[in-house]
Design a protein that fits this description.
Length: 121
């Protein structure tokens, strides 16, 4: 049974590292601020949540740790919950502020749903 936990945990860590690499390439290669912000958000969520879930599963499988494995699992799951709440809302706030202040060019936008509802004071 421990081998199953090890396999799943290491697989999640490997997938999370893939998300980090893809996000880093996206930041370097994508042309606009909003696309780069999207790559960073994907990298933040996929690259941090999946490895944390992998560590939590690995900790559950390590019976040698005793009761400390439950603390590690709980800390990882609480961190996952906090990142799931804060990362998308922070990214949205940053994108909205950049859009409203006109500091980022909006060139590659094909459809701009916010152009009608934005207060241009």
């Amino acid at each position: 049974m421990n081998l199953v936990f090890y396999g799943i945990g290491l697989g999640l860590i490997a997938i999370g590292s893939f998300f980090e690499v893809v996000g880093a390439i996206g930041v370097l290669k994508l042309p606009s601020f909003f696309l780069r912000l999207h790559a960073l958000t994907v990298s933040c969520i996929g690259g941090s949540i999946l490895p944390l879930l992998g560590v939590a599963i690995l900790a559950i499988g390590l019976e040698e740790m005793g009761s400390q494995r439950l603390f590690i699992t709980a800390i990882c799951l609480i961190s996952v919950f906090i990142i799931l709440i804060l990362a998308p809302s922070g990214s949205h706030s940053l994108a909205r502020a950049a859009y409203n202040s006109n500091t980022a060019p909006k060139q590659p936008l094909e459809y701009d749903a916010l152009s009608r509802g934005v207060n241009k004071d």
